[in-house]
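[recover] target loaded
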């Protein structure tokens, strides 16, 4: 079941252009769904509501939202399946709403295409700030594609900025939109260490000490797809994309070369609790 909430003509500009961005709120708890919708409409967004898995997929097809706020536990089929289906049809930024704080659950969500997450109970101010940050990232990625070389090569890794495709040793690797943006940020300076706060600002649009869990989770997911040792950790500093493989073809580094994962989701600068 879906329900249009805010009236308005279809958008004619990008996510942060003159037209209002369209958001899809997918949450089976009607009280939470309505509270999110009311706040987002008050913030100037156009909102479409869905309350189950099939309704979310249908609303995505019908309204082509600029961003999806997606609950993990849904009737019909869960948020992970929703994420898989909407990304197969048309990639879109996804902010996952979850009561699960387990790292494995979060990694699965990020692996199927979620860009960020907030853990229930959440603050409305934080949700709005994350929505705006994700929409800014979409605009920034579009601008960078127009301003920079279309193809980046780091050893046997090729990143096609315009087509948003990645290949390792000639074989295509399928990444989520945010995994691609993270790899692009690292591939812009292959071999050089990118500071953690710089990556958070460039990829997510904000930087905060609490955001390490989001960054680390995406690095783990990226490593699983392009090779565990391709992204090297410099402890206490950041990450670097390795370009020199070993004789057997595997990149330098290792799967265990990771930063510790923090125990709580990120808190945005200026947010109250």
């Amino acid at each position: 079941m879906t329900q249009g909430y805010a009236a308005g003509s279809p958008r004619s500009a990008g996510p942060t252009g003159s037209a209002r961005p369209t958001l899809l709120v997918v949450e089976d708890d009607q009280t939470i769904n309505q509270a999110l919708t009311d706040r987002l409409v008050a913030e100037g967004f156009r909102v479409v509501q869905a309350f189950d898995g099939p309704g979310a997929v249908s609303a995505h097809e019908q309204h082509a939202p600029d961003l999806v706020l997606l609950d993990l536990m849904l009737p019909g089929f869960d948020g992970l399946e929703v994420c898989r289906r909407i990304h197969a049809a048309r990639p879109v930024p996804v902010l996952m709403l979850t009561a699960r704080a387990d790292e494995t659950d979060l990694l699965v969500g990020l692996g199927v295409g979620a860009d960020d997450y907030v853990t229930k109970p959440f603050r409305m101010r934080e949700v709005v700030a994350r929505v705006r940050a994700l929409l800014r990232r979409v605009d920034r990625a579009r601008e960078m594609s127009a301003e920079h070389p279309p193809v980046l090569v780091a050893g046997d890794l090729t990143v096609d900025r315009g087509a948003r495709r990645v290949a390792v040793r000639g074989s295509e690797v399928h990444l989520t939109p945010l995994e691609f943006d993270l790899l692009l940020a690292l591939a812009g300076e292959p071999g050089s260490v990118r500071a953690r706060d710089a990556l958070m600002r460039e990829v997510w649009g904000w930087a905060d000490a609490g955001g390490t869990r989001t960054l680390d989770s995406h690095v783990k997911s990226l490593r699983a797809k392009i090779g565990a040792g391709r992204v090297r950790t410099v402890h206490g500093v950041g990450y670097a994309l390795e370009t020199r493989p070993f004789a057997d073809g595997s990149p330098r580094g290792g799967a265990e070369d990771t930063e510790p994962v923090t125990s709580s989701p990120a808190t945005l600068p200026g947010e109250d609790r």
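[recover] notes: The first helix runs from residue 30 to 42.
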